[in-house]
Amino acid sequence: MSQPASLPLVASLLDAPLPPSGIVWLDAARHENRAAFAAGGLPDTRVEAWKYTALRALGQRSFAHGDAAAASRAVAASRFALPGVVGPRLVFVNGVFRADLSALDALPPGLTLQPLAQALHGDAEPLRFVLSRPIPASEAADAFVRINAASATDGVVLRVAAHAKVAAPVQLVFVGAAAEVAAPAHPAPAALARSSASELAWHLRNVIELGEGAELNLIEHHVSEGEPAQLATFVSDIDVREGARLHHTVLQNVAAGTSLVRRSSVRVHGRAHAVLHVLELGGALVRHDLQAELIGNGARFDTRGVFMPHGRQHIDTQLTIRHQALNTTSASTWRGVANDRARGVFRGAIVVAPGADGSDASLGNKNLLLSPGAEIDTKPELEIYADEVKAAHGATVGQLDERSLFYLRSRGIPLAQARALLTAAFCRAVLDDLPNEALREHLSALLVAQLPNV
Amino acid sequence: MSSSMINENSASTTLRDNADVAEALGRSYAAGFVTEIEMTGLPPGLDEDTVRQISAIKQEPEWMTEWRLEAYRHWLTMPKPDWAKLDIDPIDYQAISYYAAPKAGLKSLDEVDPALLETYEKLGIPLHERAALAGVAVDAVFDSVSVGTTFRKQLAEAGVLFCSMSEAIREYPELVRKYLGSVVPTGDNFFAALNSAVFSDGSFVFIPKGVRCPMELSTYFRINAQNTGQFERTLIVAEEGSHVSYLEGCTAPKRDENQLHAAVVELVALEKAQIKYSTVQNWYPGDENGVGGIYNFVTKRGDCRGDDSKISWTQVETGSAITWKYPSVVLRGDRSVGEFYSVALTHHCQQADTGTKMIHLGKHTKSKIVAKGISAGRSSNSYRGLVKMEKGAEGARNYTQCDSLLIGKQCGAHTFPYMEVKNPSAIVEHEATTSKISDDQMFYCRSRGISEEDAVSMIVDGFCKQVFRELPMEFAVEAKKLLEVSLEGAVG
């Protein structure tokens, strides 16, 4: 399962060790993870969690660490403007915090929102637990979590104080900007273009915490300026304390040359409720490993997501929900639409721990295959160790319902239009309960725009 | 061997009241007796010489010996699979004796050691004259050699070949050579490779073109001698337009050490042929603390080679300490059909990781999977299945339903379905639920004067009905009884 560190990707990511941060425990954690990444290399497809996502091609590429010119890259504000989203905003370009693009004035009371580097520079101690926590052996197969822990110097620190209700949506924007934005296309020899470090890698580490009874509406937005060929990794820890409510919406719409590997760990405490909406639209190789733990009695976690790979995209979502307390609830609805030669991968695992009586878990994953070259691999899983539970999952792969098509056609709607309508409705189902109407309409339009012109 | 056990089987067939159940079925394993007859066999150990010796004892032709050796050499290079959700103690392959057989050469059923026949009596296998009543032809495998095959004549008249694998290798080498290993290649997986190298016997069935096999065929496997692994090899070939139903039942004596059973079953269905394969597996599951029991690591695969062919697997798995078994169908022919019906029950410390694979290659192929898992005690029961729609599987269709029933707080029930779809016109559907026997159901039964134990057995029976319906009648009765015995003491 391990590969030699001589793999170009591994070697290049290890190329530039970080300078000492001046924080002893942080340097120790970075060093340890760096060594573990060097020793472990990349997982291959024999590792169960990477069965359907081969890293062979990515492993052959080299990436330069960080972008020296990130602070001056031009990014149009229209890239990340979203209707219905006006509020505090934190923007990163190629992994570097951009105060000029962010909106951090007049933060609502109870909200702390700052770049991780800044937070570490001030008082690093509150972050010590999260950042120096050893990565458990069960996650050892995930090389990207390690390289992120070894290399990320910045990210988001977001805290909502207990009982604070933040009304305005908070937007986190992660922009990948192409290096050649400044210098327009010049006819460089192919060999030179390859060796010049136009391919960039950057890493961000996010820490998000909602205090007891707090409320937050969070928008996480991944987007590109130009057509960057990049690799970005994200590791996010999200804590939702007793009785808190989190509405989290993720819009991932990066350029076709960008590979994105994210891990989000969500911990939902007693009576807290977290709702996650995810749109996975862009990217070359996209992997999102989403792990939720329901650790308090009466905790609830709902996800609704859609992935729409087209072209030669590969979008992989790994969802694991662990019910570890009494009377916990989870409901997951996921849709996949694969077109052209794209591949959609979904794993949805529900784990009910011993003693987690009263758990109620359901998961549904429906997929449409639109083209003979496309592929969908889906794997819903149940691991149940308690008997007072309700757990169900369902998954389908297929085409649009013939009867629905017939119904529309019999009412004079042409076949192509009928197909488009039904496909749009199929995807839009995951947005139904998004409370922000303007945002919902916008996201829904993005979905429709991504559909092929059938 | 305990003589008090002999009565148990006959008692179980009488109308029972609760006292009977407790006494007759008890918590004990009714088939757990050891037959004392003289055995010959190879000493424990495995190397190329062992493989050659097995081949020599069975008077096999040169190509067969080479085939085995090739499998053995490949096996040496293979890693042990560890992807299943099973906790397996390391197996010492050198401590196993790879061949055991009753001593005297046998010519007919009448010469079979009476002690041996008695064994079958106890198991309730209708061998000999009882076979006529039951209308079942039995190829009984006693440890490694097939000791008697009944109804050969009647089958021969229909043109059906039904004999032991060793005999088939001698009598019909061209057929065996053509089909053996064509569904499960020698290097397919770790246990199949081991089986290919050392398999001692098994059944061979050949149904010629257009023949509907006049009776249901049956093999009763039984592991007897201590420290022997059982490695049978079954091959069923159904030629164009033919039809066969095959039953397989398994029991083994009670012993403290674990015994390895690594069988390979290959089914080939040519154009318009149909094969129905039913298994009731009741190997010794170990005691309530998980000591002893059979390791059941079996590779079963059917190949719907011809258009419009059909292969159907039905299994009731109640025994074995550890089950690792995935009866599969390769749907190669256009419009071919694959089916998998399974009930897997685990109790005490049993572990099961079982399911199926449906590989759709041909156009308009169809498959249906119904899997019912029941976990009790401290057991772990996993369904693991793969449905694969390859590029050419135009208009293919799959429906999968997996339900798990949990009895008790210390057991686990898991579902790991894999769906891989490469054809946009294919449809795959999967549904799974996990629940326990609801208090409402229990209350309803109890309020009508049904004892708790009977209520559980009724509800479990209902839960499994969809699968039992697929079993031949005698097997359905046995399966139902087995579930009752296995669940004894699970509630209350």
Describe the structure.
The complex is a heterodimer of chains A (454) and B (492). Chain A is of the alpha/beta class. Chain A folds into two domains: 2-294, no CATH class; 402-454, no CATH class. Chain A has helices at residues 8-13, 24-40, 56-59, 116-122, 125-132, 143-151, 190-195, 402-410, 415-428, 437-450; strands at residues 64-65, 89-93, 96-97, 111-115, 156-160, 170-177, 200-210, 215-225, 230-240, 245-253, 258-268, 273-280, 285-294, 300-307, 314-323, 329-338, 343-352, 360-369, 375-384, 390-398. In chain A, the strands form two sheets. In chain A, strands 1, 4, 5, 7, 9, 11, 13, 15, 17 and 19 form a ten-stranded mixed beta sheet that branches. In chain A, a hairpin with a 2-residue loop joins strand 2 (89-93) and strand 3 (96-97). In chain A, helix 2 (24-40) runs antiparallel to helix 6 (143-151) and helix 8 (402-410) crosses helix 9. Chain B contains 13 helices and 24 strands. Chain B starts with 5 loop residues before the first helix and ends in a 5-residue tail after the last helix. In chain B, a hairpin with a 2-residue loop joins strand 3 and strand 4. The A-B interface holds A 48, 52, 354-355, 367, 369-372, 374-399 and B 83, 389, 391, 404, 406-436.
Oligomer: heterodimer
Distance between the termini of chain A: 43 Å
Run of helices and strands of chain A: HHHEEEEHHHEEHEEEEEEEEEEEEEEHHH
Q: Summarize the main sheet of chain B.
A: 10 strands, mixed
Strands of chain B, total number: 24
Broad structural category of chain A: alpha/beta
Helix content of chain A: 10-25%
Mean pLDDT of chain B: 81
Anisotropy-based shape of chain A: globular
Low-confidence stretches of chain B: 1-27, 127-135
**What's the count of strands of chain A?**
20
Which chains have the largest interface? A-B, 35 and 35 residues
Q: Can you count the helices of chain B?
A: 13
Task: Give the structural class of chain B.
Answer: alpha/beta
